[in-house]
Write a structure and sequence with these properties.
Pfam families: M_Eco57I_C (PF22837). By secondary structure, the chain is mostly helical. The protein is about 30% helix and about 5% strand. The longest helix is centred in the first third of the chain and has 13 residues.
Length: about 190
């Protein structure tokens, strides 16, 4: 049965995972009150949770090997990560940089090179991040049209966008030497 928790687990001696010490119904109540509890705990079987908890105690974290930080948070990927066609339509060439939007674009590749990227571009996949940090308001009619499109979709009202000085300026994250996606289908893939 998925989503049930084991009680009184001997391997959680320092009581880090408070959910592991309660019955399933109490766990669900606690989860609804505590934003630090991961929802994955609801979808894993008791066996899977037990295995992962024991394994986590025996392995080093990714932080032992590399610096980990979140990537770009756009709040509207379909608006800020676009295809070559969209760039041309709105004259955004001065304001874009290459980006890999989804892990599925890697397929089974470990190394992703310029040729692979060009294949994405040529297949009209969203492959460019719109960076308007250097944009001067009203300096381009086409860019203004694109911003109006975003406002018509009420993107400026989204939580992350509201917190920015200009809703359309996404905070930049410096690129790393490698990366992996949190949504990775069957198994995580580390890319360089």
């Amino acid at each position: 049965r998925k989503g049930l928790f084991l009680n009184d687990l001997e391997f959680d001696k320092n009581k880090k995972n408070k959910l592991l010490h309660h019955a399933a119904d109490k766990c669900r109540r606690l989860i609804s009150q505590d934003e630090n509890i991961k929802w994955s705990s609801l979808t894993l079987s008791d066996y899977e949770l037990n295995f992962l908890t024991r394994l986590a105690g025996k392995l080093k974290s990714i932080g032992s090997y590399a610096t980990s930080r979140p990537g770009i948070v756009t709040a509207a990927n379909s608006f800020f990560i676009v295809s070559k066609r969209k760039i041309e339509e709105y004259s955004l060439q001065k304001y874009v940089s290459p980006i890999i939007q989804k892990s599925q674009f890697f397929q089974n590749n470990i190394v992703f090179n310029e040729s692979d990227f060009n294949e994405l571009v040529n297949s009209n996949k969203p492959s460019y991040f719109i960076d308007l940090s250097g944009y001067i308001k009203n300096s381009s009619e086409r860019v203004e049209d694109y911003l109006k499109l975003g406002e018509s979709l009420e993107l400026h009202k989204r939580y992350k966008c509201q917190r920015r000085k200009n809703w359309y300026v996404v905070p930049k994250v410096p690129p790393g030497e490698g990366f992996f996606f949190k949504r990775c289908n069957e198994y995580p893939k580390l890319h360089k």
